[in-house]
Specification:
The chain is an alpha/beta fold. It is 41% helix and 19% strand.
């Protein structure tokens, strides 16, 4: 069977946190996966290579190192491989980093996304699923955040690029009938997570007797969502197929836990699981940060019959167990 007759699911950002977990689940269920990642140094690439090491142990995994901005490379992959389903998770992540390096976000999140859309359009891809973010809601005063809310006031460059992705996806769904599904992720955490995220950086600091910086004096609320509660609905969407009942074939889902946690309570739970107190430095709200995220997941329940399963206590415990094992601490 050559690469053109064999069907692959194309997972961009396959060495990233969510991409790795999704690729592994797909591989375990027997799908052929083509992974793409540029292994940039936004955080320690060793973690990315270690994730890839696990994926490369599967015979049905193929990995390509490269960037979304390289249109020629993307076109060659869509030409060489049969890619009916694309799960586009690659992006320059991070709200605060976007204040310092805005150009990086424009290249990766806008130019890169446009390249993906063009390839999907040209090859008449059956379903494009792509990562968006809860940050598109900005300082939305209506709680919980609904996919029906207006989201036209992003307060960071990162959030603006994610909202732009949703608008571009709608345009391609409208013009070319390209079926697209946007996934607004709400503060994803768990084993193999990103070092720039609070749980990872707090755990590292507490274990090393270093202080942790707590913004907005600990009064922020986040709808922390365990990685398994992100992967399961994506898998259901892959199996369910595109939103063909809609014109244009365009859909957005909130992927959140639907139970916001106060940052100060989150830290208390972490201290309990680590058996160690944190040295805390309280600071004001940072530019670009929102005070609360809270996902309305009615569509998720209605369309996919799925509700998040993993509590914050269980999720943090799983992460701490992984962290201590991985870093031998």
């Amino acid at each position: 069977m050559n690469e053109q007759t064999k069907s692959y699911i194309f997972v961009t950002g396959s060495a990233g946190f969510i991409g790795f977990h999704l690729a592994r689940r797909l591989l375990e269920e027997g799908y052929h996966v083509l992974g793409l990642d540029n292994i940039n140094d936004y955080y320690d690439p060793t973690l990315k290579w270690d994730r890839l090491k696990i994926l490369k142990a599967y015979k049905n995994f193929t990995f390509i190192k490269g960037s979304l901005e390289n249109l020629e490379l993307l076109e060659s992959l869509f030409e060489q491989y049969n890619l009916p389903i694309v799960v586009h998770l690659a992006a320059q992540a991070g709200v605060r980093y976007s204040l310092k390096n805005p150009h990086q976000y424009i290249q990766s999140n806008l130019v890169g996304f446009m390249n993906i859309l063009e390839c999907c359009k040209d090859k008449k891809v059956e379903h494009l699923l792509y990562a968006s973010s809860s940050s598109v809601y900005g300082n939305n005063k209506k709680i919980p955040f609904s996919i029906h809310d207006e989201v036209n006031e992003p307060i960071s460059v990162y959030a603006a690029t994610k909202r732009a992705n949703e608008l571009l996806a709608f345009t391609y769904s409208h013009l070319y009938k390209l079926p697209t599904t946007g996934l607004r992720f709400f503060t994803v955490y768990g084993p193999w997570g990103r070092p720039d995220m609070a749980l990872f950086s707090f755990t590292k600091a507490i274990l090393n007797d270093q202080p942790i910086e707590i913004y907005n004096y600990g009064h922020m609320k986040r709808d922390f969502t365990y990685i398994d509660d992100i992967i399961e609905p994506i898998m259901r969407l892959v199996k369910k197929g595109p939103p063909t009942d809609k014109t244009p074939p365009y859909k957005i889902y909130n992927l959140g836990h639907n139970k916001p946690v106060l940052l100060s309570d989150f830290i208390k739970t972490l201290e309990k699981k680590l058996g160690k107190q944190a040295h805390k430095i309280y600071l004001p709200l940072q530019p670009g940060d929102v005070t609360e995220t809270y996902a309305d997941i009615n569509e998720l329940i209605q369309d996919l019959s799925y509700q998040p399963q993993v509590s914050i206590e269980e999720g943090i415990e799983n992460f701490v167990t992984w962290y201590k094992s991985y870093y031998k601490s």
